[in-house]
Design a protein that fits this description.
Layout (H helix, E strand, L loop, with lengths): L4 H7 L6 H4 E8 L3 E8 L14 E16 L2 E14 L2 E3 L14 H8 L3
Parallel strand pairs: 2-4
Antiparallel strand pairs: 1-2, 3-4, 4-5
Length: about 120
Amino acid sequence: MQLTPEQQALSLFLPEGTLESFTVASSQRTDTDIAIVLEEKNIPPLEDRHRDVPVLSKGFYDITVDDFPARGRRVSLTFRRRRWQVGDELLKREIHLTAPGTQLEKEFADFLKAGG
């Protein structure tokens, strides 16, 4: 995937591979927080068995995770995940966003576990 210079710069601050599956929908900065909302691209994870079966978007569900602080502000990333109805099956892409058992981004959880 070819990234624009702006996307390349942003990818340095987001978890690795984020812009392959998500686009930035919005962002907000306050005195204490940075919030970034990322929306999953509308590319259903179809297989050969889904050929010629109608695909319906079934909307989003949000997952918010805490990430490394930046510029003295708490950072939260909200991932708006998609679901698709294909025949009688509900599909979602398998993307691991958080460390198991936490609401922390994986790299941030590893950093804290190591005594960062």
